[in-house]
Amino acid sequence: IDFIQALQLEGNKEKKEEVEKSEHQKIRMSIEETKKSLPVYPFKKSLIEAITNYQILIVEGETGSGKTTQIPQYLHEAGFTDDGKKIGCTQPRRVAAMSVSARVAQEMNVKLGNEVGYSIRFEDCTSDRTVIKYMTDGTLHREFLSEPDLASYSVMIIDEAHERTLHTDILFGLVKDITRFRPDLKLLISSATLDAEKFSTFFDDAPIFRIPGRRFPVDIYYTKAPEADYVDACVVSILQIHATQPLGDILVFLTGQEEIETCFEMLQERTKRIGKKLKELIILPVYANLPSDMQAKIFEPTPEGARKVVLATNIAETSLTIDNIIYVIDPGFAKQNNFNSKTGMESLMVVPISKASANQRAGRAGRVAPGKCFRLYTAWAYKYELEDNTIPEIQRINLGNAVLTLKALGINDLIHFDFLDPPPHETLVLALEQLYALGALNHHGELTKAGRRMAEFPTDPMLAKMLLASEKYKCSEEIVTIAAMLSVNSSVFYRPKDKIIHADTARKNFFHPHGDHLTLMNVYNQWVGSEFSVQWCYENFIQYRSMKRARDVREQLAGLMERVEIDMVSSLSDDTNIRKAITAGYFYHIAKFSKGGHYKTVKHNQTVMIHPNSALFEELPRWVIYHELVFTSKEFMRQVTEIESKWLLEVAPHYYKAKELEDSTNKKMPKTVGKSSNR
Ligand code: ADP
Ligand code: MG
Predict the structure, then answer these.
(1) What Gene Ontology molecular-function terms does this entry list (predicted)?
(2) 3-state SS string over 494-556?
């Protein structure tokens, strides 16, 4: 990598001392001192004054200024919880809600879940005593269903508003409406970047409270040519920084758990090879499914003489602030859910970030001292290839779940809903059509009884429909298990680089001939058989943490099944019913093996492939249903199960016509042909 030379040429002697000094200062600082050192602290009084005087306030301040952790505490101290009401604070990401609430509980010296708690999907860590509650924006969106006036809150903070997630965008409209008939409710919209004016305009010209930031200069380096393998380039850059640069921690932005794990393993291996020649390098991953004890580690002060390198998803861009970062490595990518309203297909893909994101990332290096940001892309790419801003989620993802929740809230006219930026008309119409096809809406666009039950589940409407369908097909036990396993992503199987063959053999032992949904069920059931054993997971290359989470999710889902009055029953040996129930929810996700040796989606004739990790990768059945599409080199179907086309007429007669399901060539494909062409 070509900026290595730039690194080696620099002496950096004076800076070295500066960095080390500030590091040691930080470690010695007590919680009280740390609180007082935050940029928001001098504004404590004027902030409370502003909140007292205005019902709605836009708060703008750079990331790390203390907005999320401090403002709720200030409000609590100022008496905003004295009437028995709570302060709510939304976060776009689960990890942030958990980590920030843990920090605030620590600062207030209370047990997490008592006075300070968090609530995220499938997990509620609050109690009657909770007065400061952090939650995901999705959780608050759902809370409207049970408490449409947010009566239990005295203040609501919509935090990280600049992230513009789908739920945050919808909350804007909902909370704005509530402030009109609840004059006692205070509303704070808090944002890290320059969108404040826009928020102010939307909220009837609410005043903006600016917290002046402190920022040290950050030098930016680019590569001279594009990097072919940015994970490898990250590893090389990390080691170069470690070898040539003064102490100070490194933050690396990767796109997801798998990539982070790959990078982690590569780094470990290479540092082992280098041996004791270098100072200690502490490698810490951060991503959404990381267990909380591991999350806490990233905030622990780096021991003297060592260097910390944090491998994070874009969660560390603005949601989490890790102190003492001096170096940032930015490959320039993020994982994004994108929805194509023409094809109705949603797909998770790795995309280039925007200039705004790139600048946020760089800014993370300059919080405590002058820093450096290494962009693993060219200056030309930055200038000409990156968009200025990230498109808000509401304009690029499937709105099925959002529309269902809004309908359940009695908001029927979605075209005229008060959106900050309205979603594209086609996307809205498509969501309505999909909900109609799923039976959640009638032809007037009103919520049906089934729709009302579906809205009870905090999931995609298709998953909710699958859960409901398990009633008819008498397999609720199995479907709840499958739903829980699907919701922990594909992270169930552990594949360490040095034991890939063993891991893959272990995985194959779970394979069900009909596909991945049943394979996941097998894994879960065998784990139950092992009495939830850690050892069993270890021996079978299964991630214990993911399994534990699946178990929690399963428990939650079973509780919701009870609420919609579906008995838990088992279909015993027959898996046809299970697959029919899955089809009843996911009939949009059907692909058919075509003559060309690959799969085509039925409605839109898109070419898709079975993911190499699938149980059906070498089987190639004629008709399959998939859980999701992942776009890497090709469009891959992940979690694939064989179905029979005639079921589609049974579960979705209003969506499929017998004609489009006819098989002209009803012979099974010779296995070898398909196998090679699928690669
Ligand atoms: P903002 O919301 O303005 O970006 P925060 O309130 O998140 O700022 O962060 C303020 C400070 O609190 C930062 O110095 C950050 O490192 C620290 N902090 C936040 N969460 C934790 C945690 N879980 N453990 C330790 N420190 C934390
Ligand atoms: Mg924050």
Answers:
(1) ATP binding; hydrolase activity; RNA binding; RNA helicase activity
(2) CCCHHHHHHHHHHHHCCCCCCEHHHHHHHHHHHHHHCCCCHHHHHHCCECHHHHHHHHHHHHH
